[in-house]
Amino acid sequence: MPHRFEILGPIRVVDDDQEIDLGPGKQRAVLAVLLLNANKPVPTAQIVDAVWQDEPPENGANVVQKYIAGLRRALEPERSPRTPGQLLALTEAGYLARVPDNGLDIDLFHDCVRAARASQAAGQLDEAAAELRAALALWQGEALAGLSGGYFTAARERLGDARCAAYETLGEVELARGRHASLVPELVRLVAEFPLREQLRYQLILALYRSGRQAEALAAFRTAREFLADEFGVDPGSQLQELHRRMLRSDPSLLLTPVAAEAAALPHPRVPTAAPPVPLMAPAPPMAPVSPVSPVPMPPAGLPLALGPGPGLGQRGWRWGDSPPNWVRLCAVLATLAGAGLVTWLVIGAYAVNRRSRILGLIAFAYLGLGAVSCAIVDATADDPNAGGYAIGMWFFAWFGGAVHVAVLNFLPKRGRDDDLERRVKREQARQLLQHHPALAHQLGVGRPDLPGHFDDGGLVDVNAVPEPVLATLPGVGPQRAWAIAVDRSRRGPFGTVDDLAARGLVEPRDLDRLREIIICGQTFSGHRVDPVPGHSTLA
């Protein structure tokens, strides 16, 4: 029986149902890097950067060679020490892990998910549900458990996104099968585990409503709205809002049709090929255009995203917590000048609350203390010209200095944890859009900041499509590497993964973790760009 490699949990290798001892933690980490790039060579420098990050050993190549030798002894105990390894081979481009077909659990996972989606498209919902549950059963906890570092964290997030997308597909299938009542407990657990996935919240609310639990469904919507407002200052997506409106109207189309309900009650329900399954998602209302000359097409039913043009999430006016518009900034400067230095602390304090900045809060207290001290000096030493001069100087600084300070703040972009989280949410949503609806993503220009009316995708960049000036802005790239990337992709074809940039010697391996967060590798396939799972080049 060939070896079975597992990374959907703690990294394990099983041979004849016996787990193999892989040695110390760093040695297991080296194997994990090779398995994440199964059947592809990995340069030694990339292995060193992934395993040791910012503290590589002085003789990193020799240490990697030592760990490879230890892995070969564990995986191929009968191999002669002087013969080349079969499972772990050394090539000109680096070390390569030869994994047989169906030998890696993540490959089995993706195969099952693809088969399930094909069965779902064909109306074979029983088969789709079975394939999805088989795929999810491969997970033995958190992927790559026990391995730390930016490289493994990024890989863990990518694998977690794929797992969550499989859960969302399973929810669609089970709802179409009429299993809404039994699905509720599982969806409650998933919403708690993945609170940012609006698709799971949508399915939970719909399952509660179809189960006759309308009050709980409305309460679940309120919980979702409060969570998004408190954490990100955004409203629920158009799909959730439309579902809420339809529940308030008691829209009968939210329930299963009699034919589907009767089929769901059978011991082994199947959807007839002559009748397509009932749509799970309400059709979204028409969306506002990205620009006056380029309208955004309506997303297909089932789109699990809150889409909107421009820099914001969704369609709404300015609200507290957002970066203030120009008229608010002008009013802040005028209020500081008109207040004669007495309200400077109040304006700076408002900025501190808006940006959740402790430093600005301390500065606001400093302005308040400055004004209080200057007033106290004037009252206490009215006949002392020197003290009066000091008081006037402090007052003048609080007045005009405060106005200049407020004006400077208007030109400084808002920074902080909330902005970073919002950008991550936008990138995640854009990647879901690219995975599930590549044609719409192509029309919106996901990953194309060079296009006019650019859709706000959180700063994603399609390395296979953007021009050199955009490539030059990427971390660790610059003009010379941008030119080399453009020439390489024109001669050797598009990049399949972000790691290909390092494998082709175009970027430094130490920059890959930062690049993985913002780069997508769009492929041309039937007229659309496809990137099913960030960091992977599999075409569905």
UniProtKB/TrEMBL annotation:
<keyword id="KW-0812">Transmembrane</keyword>
<dbReference type="InterPro" id="IPR016032">
    <property type="entry name" value="Sig_transdc_resp-reg_C-effctor"/>
</dbReference>
<feature type="domain" description="OmpR/PhoB-type">
    <location>
        <begin position="1"/>
        <end position="99"/>
    </location>
</feature>
<dbReference type="Pfam" id="PF00486">
    <property type="entry name" value="Trans_reg_C"/>
</dbReference>
<keyword id="KW-0238">DNA-binding</keyword>
<keyword id="KW-0804">Transcription</keyword>
<feature type="DNA-binding region" description="OmpR/PhoB-type">
    <location>
        <begin position="1"/>
        <end position="99"/>
    </location>
</feature>
<protein>
    <submittedName>
        <fullName>DNA-binding SARP family transcriptional activator</fullName>
    </submittedName>
</protein>
<dbReference type="GO" id="GO:0006355">
    <property type="term" value="P:regulation of DNA-templated transcription"/>
</dbReference>
<dbReference type="GO" id="GO:0000160">
    <property type="term" value="P:phosphorelay signal transduction system"/>
</dbReference>
<feature type="transmembrane region" description="Helical">
    <location>
        <begin position="327"/>
        <end position="352"/>
    </location>
</feature>
<dbReference type="InterPro" id="IPR005158">
    <property type="entry name" value="BTAD"/>
</dbReference>
<dbReference type="Pfam" id="PF03704">
    <property type="entry name" value="BTAD"/>
</dbReference>
<dbReference type="GO" id="GO:0003677">
    <property type="term" value="F:DNA binding"/>
</dbReference>
<keyword id="KW-0805">Transcription regulation</keyword>
<dbReference type="InterPro" id="IPR001867">
    <property type="entry name" value="OmpR/PhoB-type_DNA-bd"/>
</dbReference>
<feature type="transmembrane region" description="Helical">
    <location>
        <begin position="392"/>
        <end position="412"/>
    </location>
</feature>
<dbReference type="InterPro" id="IPR036388">
    <property type="entry name" value="WH-like_DNA-bd_sf"/>
</dbReference>
<feature type="transmembrane region" description="Helical">
    <location>
        <begin position="359"/>
        <end position="380"/>
    </location>
</feature>
<keyword id="KW-0472">Membrane</keyword>
<keyword id="KW-1133">Transmembrane helix</keyword>
<comment type="similarity">
    <text>Belongs to the AfsR/DnrI/RedD regulatory family.</text>
</comment>
<dbReference type="InterPro" id="IPR051677">
    <property type="entry name" value="AfsR-DnrI-RedD_regulator"/>
</dbReference>
<dbReference type="InterPro" id="IPR010994">
    <property type="entry name" value="RuvA_2-like"/>
</dbReference>
<dbReference type="InterPro" id="IPR011990">
    <property type="entry name" value="TPR-like_helical_dom_sf"/>
</dbReference>
